[in-house]
Amino acid sequence: MTFKERAHELVSKMTLEEKVAQMQYEAPAIERLGVPKYCWWNECLHGVGRAGTATVFPQSIAMAATFDEDLLHTTATAISDEARAKYNEFRKFGDTLIYEGLTYWSPNINIFRDPRWGRGQETYGEDPYLTGVMGSAFIRGLQGEGKYRKLDATIKHYCVHSGPEGGRHSFNAIASDKDLYETYLWAFRYCIEHADPSAVMGAYNATNGEACCASPTYLDGVLRHEFGFPGYVVSDCGAINDIHSGHKLTSGPAGSAAAAVKAGCDLNCGRCYEWLKQAVAEGLIDEETITVACERLFTARFRLGMFDDDCEYDSIPFDVVCCDKHKAINLKMAEESLVLLKNDGILPLKQGTKVAVIGPNADSTDILLGNYNGTPDEYYTLLRGIQTVSEGKILYAEGCHLYADGYDNAAGKQREALVAAKNADAVILCMGISPRMEGEEGNDAPRSMNGDRIDLEIPDVQKKLYEEILKTGKPVIFVNVSGSAISLIRQEETANAIVQCFYPGAMGGLALANVLFGKVSPCGRLPVTFYRSVDDLPPFTDYSMKNRTYKFFEGKPLYEFGYGLTYSQITEKWVDEKTVEVKNDGSFDVNYTVLRFEYIPHKNLCGFKKVFLRAGETATVTF
């Protein structure tokens, strides 16, 4: 029997009450049918999250900066190995709790349309093609290619979702068909066609007046019929309740639950589907529609091998968690994610250089981990990485708080930094923001709108320290840490070098040091546009793509999408529209990404390939 046939047979034996219970993320056991309790909620955005020790890879936006789909597939395979290893141990308890199962609510393939969105760090950037290709590589690595699914990947948040965080439970995103199909829906369709994700998560907000988790147009019409998606749909957590409480589209929970299931949302993260039995009694939905949804969920569970004893992934041992192989992959991913934005020749630093490492992000673990993360068994802050790699003396000073001015002994902290700078040959300034300043709803640090940012600026307290460091006359290497675009106008004018460090994972500090001291050449490229000011952007709540991203921006960016320097001299000679000769004329071996754009009618990324070039080597790349 097929997985679908087995699911049909099993569900046919369930009562209405049992089917309804199985459509909630904390599904109870049905002992008479041999169905164990199962929690559907799990996370692996950039490593197994919230389930104890795991390899913490760079945040998604950092992995996007590598433009390396093969490396991302390798990373996702490592993540799924660790996920299966954990599940193999957890299931020995007889059931699974939250963050212990095989159904993962990753990746986030929303388009990072506006740098103010706090959750943009979870995405693969602003370009639909880059997002689709990288998302597909991640999905394939998670799900495997065996008889059974290794994990279930869930693409989210369908379909038009990128802030505002504070209003997401009632916000209605208005988007034209052009913007929908060119931008917001494009990566979803691409991933469905190229990677066959098991699940789709519906968003909190409404799109063009329809709640995303109960949309006949976008769930049933577009996703199921136009895109041909065969899998199951899960709501974001609490999103079904938002249909009546936030969007005011139904009169209560029974109506919201019925509307969601009829539109094609099979699984409820939340409690609203408890009302489905009453909805049937009131004639709002028929039992057959509930049966179809329940069968989709059990098809997935059978396909994951949960009820069989011959699953090829059941033998993955717990020893793979944080193993040396995965740490090596993690380090390579972190190295490739770093983007060199400016270099007057100061980099790479010579070994033996006396360096002052200064700034609130220098010894921070927060900036390594991003969000939706696990707990690494080993980590390198930026400071620790530099201390490990450098053969010269390292001076360290925090210098200032991340964002607050006037805290205890602020003047003393600044003096300590100035003393360190004056006694060093060069200064590495580790500044920027952190996941405490951008993130999901509920994250309300200063300069934040409930997770979203109000501007693109470095905090004032850091700006003041930066100007004081400049007065010392020492060369400055500015390491900007953020999950999004920052205005670096002053640094572009005055720093000797600038490195963009997206939240780089547990090995991030070691990766940065390897780049700074020339053990590897930087090769990352920006997956988002770095604007000069928030004043250059449309209102945050405007979902029109006009004047947004590299495709439609009408101003002059500080650093454009795809920008990134290396330590070598690379020349591209396009033989024709699809073939390019790439030559490394420098003295460094380099990983280098060739980008192919078309203008139809505006600029569009339509291909990228990463090649390794030894010094003096030439390669031919064909798209």
Report strand %.
15-25%
Flag low-confidence runs.
none
Distance between the termini: 42 Å
Please tell me what the overall shape is. globular
Question: Which helices and strands, and how do they pair?
Answer:
Elements: H1 3-11, H2 16-22, E1 26-27, E2 38-39, H3 60-64, H4 69-90, E3 103-104, H5 128-143, E4 152-158, E5 172-173, H6 177-184, H7 186-195, E6 199-202, E7 206-207, E8 210-211, H8 216-226, E9 232-235, H9 239-245, H10 253-263, H11 276-281, H12 287-303, H13 324-337, E10 339-343, E11 355-358, H14 366-369, H15 382-389, E12 394-397, H16 410-422, E13 426-432, E14 448-449, E15 452-453, H17 460-471, E16 476-481, H18 489-494, E17 497-501, H19 508-516, H20 549-552, E18 570-576, E19 579-584, E20 590-599, E21 603-613, E22 618-622
Parallel strand pairs: 3-4, 4-6, 5-7, 6-9, 11-12, 11-13, 13-16, 16-17
Antiparallel strand pairs: 1-2, 7-8, 10-17, 14-15, 18-19, 19-22, 20-21
Helix pairs in contact: 1-12, 2-12, 4-5, 4-13, 5-7, 9-10, 13-19, 15-19
